[in-house]
Design a protein that fits this description.
Number of helices: 8
Largest sheet: 6 strands, mixed
Number of domains: 2
Order of helices and strands: EEEEEEEEHEHHEEEHHHHEEHEE
Bound molecules: (3R)-3-hydroxy-3-methyl-5-(phosphonooxy)pentanoic acid
Helix content: 25-40%
Radius of gyration: 19 Å
Structural class: alpha+beta
Strand content: 15-25%
CATH class of the largest domain: Alpha Beta
Length: 323
């Protein structure tokens, strides 16, 4: 019988950029995000014999993606072996359907590994808590740890596999408006970009230090239900992330000229009294946060820059009933 799980991407308001442990994917600092209500990944895991297989959007995945899936399934098999389950030696057919743009800075790896963690844990017969599923998803892609969580999540950096996981946090009511200026896969993956930043950016330590402070400020702003402060922190932190990345050698630049135009338009909105703030992950697409009632007005202002989607806070990764 197959296990099916559905997970949504998340967009960080306080960004994760840099690992303290590459193998365990322990980040250098914590982060905070909103889980989206669209662009889901639905993943089916069916145990089998022979080799693992991975099909994405109806096509067999390339060797690199298949290898990453097998490495992840090995973690699940190890947990199954530790739990004394017979499934520990089984291989798996993994089938994923991704409703959003893949690898263009719209967090497809987060929804992908969150869905895979939930479906694979179930298929192998593991009974894991949300915290343990978050820890497992983290091993696939750091940001996936946050997609386990409904609405808003804080990923505690931690210092070990046990202490690095995401959990829910209350945040002010908000919507997100994404501007997809380019739906193509990015040239430098987050994984490669993070290593290059750590190895060559002279601002890396400053980035780590400020991110710790920023997360504390964000948690305080959320506790105060202070939307404006949450927005200001988000936009400043996005600029800081792109600054530390741009200072790599050779330089990596994820934002395109049109991305900057969107940031400018968001600043112009604020001048006009429309309260909106912008952020961008490791790609050229920009995500705007605003109050839910302003989402339509915000979307109208940026419609000329790319494909627009509006998001509300969405559900954490969860199992679907098997067909
Ligand atoms: O989880 P990864 O390896 O795809 O890295 C995500 C990095 C950013 O999206 C740029 C920031 C974040 O916190 O999601």
């Amino acid at each position: 019988m197959a296990s099916i799980a559905r997970a949504h991407p998340n967009i960080a308001l306080v960004k994760y950029w840099g690992k303290a442990d590459d193998d365990l994917i322990i980040p250098v600092a914590g982060s905070m995000s909103m889980t989206l209500d669209k662009f889901a990944t639905t993943t089916t895991v069916e145990l089998t014999t022979g080799l693992d297989s991975f099909e994405l959007n109806g096509t067999l995945a390339d060797a690199k993606a298949t290898q990453r899936t097998t490495v992840f399934l090995d973690l699940v098999r190890r947990l199954a072996a530790d739990a004394g389950l017979e499934t520990a030696t089984a291989s798996a057919n993994v089938t994923s359907v991704n409703e959003g743009p893949t690898a263009a800075g719209m967090a497809s790896s987060a929804s992908g590994f969150a869905a895979l963690a939930v479906a694979a844990a179930d298929a192998y017969g593991l009974k894991l808590s949300t915290k343990d599923l978050s820890r497992l998803a983290r091993r696939g892609s750091g940001s996936a740890s946050r997609s386990l969580i409904d609405r808003f999540a804080v990923w505690h950096a931690g210092t070990s596999d046990e202490t690095s996981f995401a959990e829910a946090i209350d945040a002010p009511e908000m919507a997100m408006v994404s501007v997809t200026v380019d739906a193509k896969a990015k040239k430098v993956s987050s994984r490669e970009g993070m290593v290059a930043t750590r190895d060559t950016s002279p601002y890396y330590q400053a980035w780590i230090d400020v991110t710790h402070k920023t997360l504390d400020e964000m948690i305080a702003a959320c506790a105060d239900d202070d939307f404006a402060r949450v927005g200001q922190i988000t936009e400043t932190h996005a600029h800081r992330m792109h600054a530390v990345i741009q200072a790599t050698e050779p330089p990596i630049r994820y934002l395109a000229p049109v991305s900057w135009q969107v940031f400018d338009e968001v600043a112009a909105m604020r001048d006009d009294g429309l309260e909106a703030y912008a952020t961008a992950d490791a790609g050229p697409n920009v995500v705007i946060i605003c109050r839910p009632d302003d989402a339509t007005a915000v979307a109208k202002r940026v419609a000329g820059f790319g494909a627009i989607e509006t998001f509300a806070p969405g559900p954490g990764a969860h199992l679907l009933d098997a067909a």
